[in-house]
Amino acid sequence: MGIEMNIIEAKDYKELSRKVASIISAQIILKPNSVLGLATGSTPIGTYKQLIEWYKKGDLDFSKVTSVNLDEYCGLAIENDQSYRYFMNQNLFNHVNIKMENTNVPNGLAADTEAECNRYDQLIENLGGIDLQLLGIGNNGHIGFNEPDVIFEKGTHVVELKETTIKANARFFESIDDVPRKAITMGIKSIMSAKKVILVANGSGKRDIIKKAIYGPVTPEVPASILQLHPDLTVAYCFND
Ligand code: PGA
To answer: Side by side, which strands form the sheet with 35-38?
Structure first.
């Protein structure tokens, strides 16, 4: 008995976004009070645009939805346009009828980061866990900001970002020196406890890491590889640039 995964290969970014948005809408329609685990990065932007479009048409209702985001940079105020809270407000929350108080992103400005990590784990537990978790994948195989390591970190924790991640994310900042060096991220246990997981990747640059993650050995050196053990995993990608 093997664990199966669903693979969705899209012909272009638009199709990828529509398919991923369809899965998220089905989740909301079937369970209006879903807890959605959401992700930042460039890949989900098209998915969020599609969800907004369907909301505006009257096909989707976010009024009972709760969201928990995967991660946040340490040290960026929420008004900073590179903070993940800002990203979520701009790319989704401000355009649909989700209640702002039901949206959650780790607080990257918390003075006591350990207390913030515990609060976040407790919050997810109090919500009864995540119904559907959307994930991007970093070039180094990270999910959330779970960077390659010698162990899988379980709970929400503070990470030192790897040089590869800092470089990959520098494109969004004025200079590489402005990229925060630390972040707070949900751990592997919270991600693996989600009832459904959708891993998304776009562009030819992600082909090798997706192959490694879904067909290679399960190892903390490729954090996304743990998803092979998830009982309800969908991998949706488009490798055409
Ligand atoms: P991307 O980032 O969607 O911008 O490729 C994914 C990630 O680093 O998690």
So the answer is: 5-9, 233-238, 196-202, 132-135, 35-38, 66-69, 103-104
Candidate from 42, 135, 241 with most ligand 1 atoms within 8 A of CB, to mutate: 42
pLDDT level of residue 4 (50, 70, 90 thresholds): confident
**pLDDT tens profile 77-88:** 999 999 999 999
In angstroms, the CA 120 to CA 12 distance is 35
Nearest atom within ligand 1 for CA of residue 42: 4
Residues in Cβ contact with 115 at an 8 Å cutoff, skipping those fewer than 6 apart: none
Domains of the chain, earliest start first: 6-238 (3.40.50.1360)
Positions annotated as catalytic residues are: 71, 140, 142, 147
Distance between Cα 122 and ligand 1 center (Å)? 26
* CA 20/CA 48 separation, integer angstroms: 9
137 lines ligand 1 (CB under 6 A): yes
> 136 in ligand 1 pocket by Cβ < 6 Å?
yes
Closest Cα to residue 41, out of 155, 222, 200?
A: 200
* pTM more than 0.90: yes
Handedness of CA 186, 188, 193, 197 (dihedral sign): positive
